[in-house]
């Protein structure tokens, strides 16, 4: 349920109203917009009626929220959420996602392989205009015999690349036990296979880092938003959603990119949405086309895999762009973004 307060409501009256709600055993989420303040009620509101609040002089209206996700709902939070990555760090250039003015690109190799490899990739993507460096230190792989990542050493190399380039870093977390190693990671990625690992999501809710939450291989939009709700309900509202393709009956691409998710998520949720075209298709030559389509659909950011020598990559060689192709794509994306008054 949400309660919309009158614009002229005094701060002391709002505080008193909120205290009264908490005394009923309910949680409260406060969203202050330009013209109104919205109080979101969290918990079992089944015994309450919107009319219960209308007698209060500071209440303009009250209504039930039908969506099972509350904090991720635009009803609870009408204004777009803007997430800043890499803030308040000396030598690091912060990146804003969700402001509607920019189309930042997260780029880098699928896996961190060697120091030489990740430093070269970091310099290449920064030169082309990327705003965040990605690279897998821990790799969830279908086969137990495939490269599983360098682990803690991979994170150390990402930190080295951050110091060299000033780019914030994004890498995937697979287990709660590894969370202590992510203190210097700027954007923690939850992969498709873990998007309903609820214990992990709860712990990320208690952590202070922004989270990039990827949609599951066969996950629905509602399930993605409910997973975001787990993180937000536990205290971390810096959540970014990621569409990375879902499985369908056809196998001509690795996955099927659901671009309709972008306008729909913008309609029902205030959280930013990132498109990952690399995992969506798994085919190098398709990545620029899908990236352009994502920009046109209104994505808040893109995540693209780039490797200085894709044919020698230790994982996902077929979908990673070489720097030369990435530079051409960035030039093209800049033009697409400019059409809508955005910059990279």
Q: Mind explaining what this structure looks like?
A:
The chain is an alpha/beta fold and 344 residues long. The chain folds into 2 domains: 2-63, 2-Layer Sandwich (Alpha-Beta Plaits), CATH 3.30.70.1140; 83-339, TIM Barrel. It has helices at 11-23, 51-54, 115-128, 152-165, 198-206, 221-233, 261-268, 277-281, 287-297, 323-339, and strands at 2-5, 27-32, 37-42, 59-63, 83-85, 95-97, 105-108, 132-134, 169-172, 187-190, 211-214, 239-243, 273-275, 301-305. The chain has an 8-stranded parallel beta barrel, surrounded by 5 helices. A 4-stranded antiparallel β-sheet has the order 2-3-1-4. α6 links the parallel β11 and β12. α5 crosses α6 and α9 (287-297) runs parallel beside α10 (323-339). It is elongated. The chain starts with a strand and ends in a 5-residue tail after the last helix.
Per CATH, the class of the largest domain reads: Alpha Beta
Q: What would you report as the Rg, rounded to the nearest angstrom?
A: 21 Å
Helix and strand sequence: EHEEHEEEEHEHEEHEHEHEHHEH
Describe the oligomeric state of these chains in a short phrase.
Answer: single chain
Distance between the termini: 38 Å
Give the key terms.
single chain, 344 residues, alpha/beta, TIM Barrel, eight-stranded parallel β-barrel, four-stranded antiparallel beta sheet, 10 helices, DAHP1/KDSA, transferase
Give the SSE map:
Blueprint: E1 2-5, H1 11-23, E2 27-32, E3 37-42, H2 51-54, E4 59-63, E5 83-85, E6 95-97, E7 105-108, H3 115-128, E8 132-134, H4 152-165, E9 169-172, E10 187-190, H5 198-206, E11 211-214, H6 221-233, E12 239-243, H7 261-268, E13 273-275, H8 277-281, H9 287-297, E14 301-305, H10 323-339
Helix pairs in contact: 3-4, 3-10, 5-6, 9-10
């Amino acid at each position: 349920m949400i309660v919309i307060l009158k614009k002229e409501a005094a701060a002391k009256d709002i505080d008193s109203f909120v205290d009264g709600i908490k005394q009923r055993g309910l949680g409260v989420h406060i969203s202050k917009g330009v013209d109104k303040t919205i109080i979101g009620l969290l918990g079992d509101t089944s015994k309450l009626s919107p009319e219960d609040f209308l007698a209060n002089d500071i209440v303009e209206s009250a209504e039930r929220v039908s969506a099972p996700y509350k904090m991720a709902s635009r009803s609870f939070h009408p204004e777009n959420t803007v997430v800043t990555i890499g803030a308040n760090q000396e030598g690091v250039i912060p990146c804003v996602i969700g402001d509607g003015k920019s189309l930042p690109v997260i780029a880098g190799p699928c896996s961190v392989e060697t120091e030489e490899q990740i430093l070269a990739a970091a310099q290449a993507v920064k030169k082309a205009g990327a705003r965040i460096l990605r690279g897998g230190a821990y790799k969830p792989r279908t086969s137990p015999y495939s490269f599983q990542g360098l682990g803690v050493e991979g994170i150390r190399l990402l930190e080295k690349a951050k110091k060299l380039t000033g780019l914030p870093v994004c890498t995937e977390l697979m287990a709660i036990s590894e969370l202590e190693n992510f203190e210097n990671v700027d954007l923690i990625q939850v992969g498709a296979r873990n998007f309903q690992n609820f214990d992990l999501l709860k712990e990320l809710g208690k952590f202070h880092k922004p989270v990039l939450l990827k949609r599951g291989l066969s996950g629905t939009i509602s399930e993605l938003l409910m997973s975001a709700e787990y993180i937000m309900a536990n205290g971390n509202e810096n959540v970014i959603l990621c569409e990375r393709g879902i499985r369908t009956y056809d196998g001509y691409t690795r996955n099927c990119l659901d671009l309709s998710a972008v306008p729909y998520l913008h309609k029902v949720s205030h959280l930013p949405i990132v498109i990952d075209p690399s995992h969506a298709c798994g085919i190098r030559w398709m990545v620029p086309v899908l990236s352009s389509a994502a920009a046109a659909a209104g994505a808040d950011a893109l995540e693209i895999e780039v490797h200085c020598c894709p044919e020698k990559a230790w994982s996902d060689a077929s979908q990673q762009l070489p720097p030369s192709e990435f530079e051409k794509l960035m030039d093209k994306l800049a033009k697409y973004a400019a059409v809508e008054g955005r910059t990279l």
